[in-house]
Specification:
The chain is α+β, with helices and mostly antiparallel strands. It contains four helices and two strands. The protein has helices spanning 2-6, 18-24, 42-47, 52-62, and strands at residues 28-32, 35-40. Strand 1 (28-32) and strand 2 form a beta hairpin.
Length: 64
Amino acid sequence: MAQLAKEGMTMIVVTHEMGFARRAADRVIFMADGEILEQAEPEEFFTNPKSDRAKDFLGKILTH
């Protein structure tokens, strides 16, 4: 999948694997409870999440 992304393949991928999302995505859409809470480029999302829910999620995922 990472190679396909590099080659320009358009994909919609649902994942909890944040390392992969950070490397392969050109856009991150963060959803919770069936609603979009945040949309951003990967670097912005991972370094400066806006919603409290995204901050909480990333804090739990990225520290393990």
